[in-house]
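Re: the request from the purification team.
They wanted to know what the chain is likely to look like in 3D before they choose a buffer screen. I agreed to run a prediction and write the result into the notebook, where they can find it.
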Amino acid sequence: MFPNTSSRPSTSQMNIGLAKQQGSALVIGIFVITVMFLMAAALVNILNDADEQVNLEVLGTRAFATANSGADAALAQLFPLSGLPADRVCAANSSWTPPDLVGFHGCTVAMTCKATTFSGVTQYLITSEATCAVGNCDGDSCIRVNRKVEVEARD
């Protein structure tokens, strides 16, 4: 019921036990440092991927807005705001240079227009394709995004 104090190990026996355990803390420390390093490397990789996804999303939004602006410019040529009858020239292939503003920087627009007449009604199909790029597109560090918008209009 009470502990046997007479069979307690001597100090020399305890020193032998400690001598056998020397170095295990070093191994555990190296293991913990290695695991922490691997976790930090994985976290940096995850953050880089998330950063690239945000860049692609922003560029995609800019390309979509640029394609919409290109379609608006083509519609303004077909149907001028002055109300005067236009020539209604529907160019098969054309390009629109966006203004040099922050949202349009690095973007180009290619447009196509196709006119179809049926029962005296002319229907126009305008396709505006915008490409926005950032980085060194001649080298390996280029991010390029493309968005396409189609608009139908009629007289």
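For the purification team: Residues 40 and 46 are 10 Å apart (CA to CA).
Please add any questions underneath this entry.
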